[in-house]
Amino acid sequence: MYLSSFRIGNRSDQLLGLAGGGTRAAVIANAMDAAPADVRFGGVEREMQALGQLGFVGVELDLRDYFNEPDRLAADLGQFDVAWFRGGNCFMLRYALARSGGDRVLLTQLENDAIVYAGYSAGPCVLAPSLKGLDLVDEPHDVEENYEESPIWDGLGVLSFAFVPHFESPGHPESEAMNNVVAHYEANGTPYKTLRDGEVLVVHGEESTLFM
To answer: What is the pTM of this model?
Structure first.
């Protein structure tokens, strides 16, 4: 897994290494599903360009196209070397993963070492045991407004701790709010790991390394 605080981060060489020469990248931008269509489109294009500069061929894989069709999602996702998760609202991403079966599909593919899970902000955040505390920075009610269903508070549980991006990153608009998230975790005894923008957490097998 290549888990960045913001965008590609400072260690794109590590992403390329994990991909092992593979160049097919699925861009998953469902964290932006509550944004206006033009803003979402622009966000996807920015990810395509950034990945393209590294030699990846990016294709958007919209989880909304796979709601209630996990087998089709598994087949299509299996064609990619990297699943790149763009930042945005972690509750919107978590809902899309659940409705599409992407949560179970990705867990299976990670267990089989069949894909690189990569991305930033909301992408790594949903890997935690729980999303509680992230409502201090992301709006869970966006799920209700868009789908008339309750948000999902359980994370995928791939990580044993909460992922806190944009920590002490003055150039990012959510940096100050992340202090509130950290305070919440401290008060509740929740294990967490903070990353400043540019930093990347790389998980390879049982080993994890934080790159500054």
So the answer is: 0.97
- pLDDT, averaged per 10 consecutive residues of the chain (212 residues), comes to 98 97 97 97 97 98 98 98 98 98 97 97 98 98 97 98 97 95 98 98 93 94
Instruction: Name the token pair of 23.
Output: 């160049």
| CA R_g for the chain | 16
Residue spans per domain, the chain: 2-211
Residue by residue, DSSP assigns 122-176 as HHHHTTSSB-TTGGGTS-THHHHHHHSSPPP-B---SSSSEEE-STT-TTSTTHH
Helix H or strand E segment including 211: strand 207-211
Evaluate whether the domain defined by 2-211 bears CATH number 3.30.70.580.
no
- Taking the C-alpha atoms of residue 110 and residue 3, their distance in angstroms, rounded to an integer, is 14
3-class SS of residue 115: coil
